[in-house]
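Problem 3 from the worked examples.
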Amino acid sequence: MARITDIGLSGSLGPLVFYKNQYGTPCSRTRPARVKLSKASRETARLFGIASSMSAVIRRDLISLLPPEKDLKIMYRLNTVLLEWLKAGRPQDSGLVTRLQYIGCYPFISGISVWSNMRGLPVINWENPGRVVVGLPRLTPAIQMSAPPLTESIRVHIRALSCLASNPAVISSSRETFIDIPYTDAAAEARDITLPLTIKPGELALVVFGLKYTVVNEGNRELVIKKDWQPLDIMGAAYLPVNK
């Protein structure tokens, strides 16, 4: 049965099915008279269920860093990238795998990324069990970091989380810290930041960076809320295979 929503029709009406594509655009298609899924299609559907569940809990854990307005494109893009990772096959190594296809250096918001705004990538060290070490490079903010006009300081949020790669997915460990960097031509020295992070077999671990900008406008300090200046990226990813 079709229903009217703020974007038009949703559901089915006679032979037509109304839905939104991965970009959030309203679409319609003809309902097939009979659907028989192949083995490959059933497997893709199973993996999509896992990807969607993981995407939901990851976005919920990052709610304070994502733009405040609802953006379905962020959800669809993350669903897709997690599905591609699952379809490529989860690693079967005996230890932690720290080079993951599709997920590393992934921007949540299309066309806006932390790594391009910072012009310097952190080094993620996964070698010590129970923690992850994030190495920030030496930066001269006013030269190496993009910022909106009148920026006074940039807050770099760093969150480490681990998520069970299953349906339902579960966040089992999550830690966050931040660094405030004055937006001047004085160099911010390199530093290492350690976050506790427990990774269990079958879990995907992520290190996520987000930038928040404070500007001074007519003597008032204001947090920039425009989405174009709220980049959020996965800077590092690791997976611990299940021992068989």
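Problem 4, a separate protein:
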Amino acid sequence: ALTNSNGQFVLEDVPFGTYTIEYEKAQYGVFKKFNFSHQEGPSAITDTPSLGKTSSTEITDLLVNIVNGQVVFSITTSPAGNNSNRRYVRYFLSTSATVSNSNYMYHSPTFTSQINPYQSILTQTELINAGFTSGQTVYVKAYGESYWSNEYLDSDLNKMIFPNLNLSTTNSVSFIVP
């Protein structure tokens, strides 16, 4: 179904059952709602997402340093973030060199970058709580994110999906868990 100018839509003559509903628009991320139950009687989709545009923030550099037993990520964006032009970033960790937004063991929250490079810190305890072990090699990859990330749990994959990421990024970088 297509929405009207107010974003409202009607799905007509839908048989009763359980569905996956997908919201999408060109230049915006996709959002999926799993296991929507359409049963006999009045039913309505009451919580619709606010779709955000796909991020225009590119990651141009990613450095990782160990400082006092903490892992410090330095993420450089283009354009650079500042007080009037915030940029959003997110990173993913894995024990695989092919770490990505779809191949990860840990994902960060979205961070607001107002300085270049943006720095984020993970402690040894946070890494161990995320399933990594001391002495283990971990790979990281960072992406530009949108203010409205449209992230959702894909129940088929049992994994969070991040459809608004800008896939223009650097190669993964590795570090050893302190």
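Solution to problem 4. Helices lie at 124-129. The mean pLDDT is 91.
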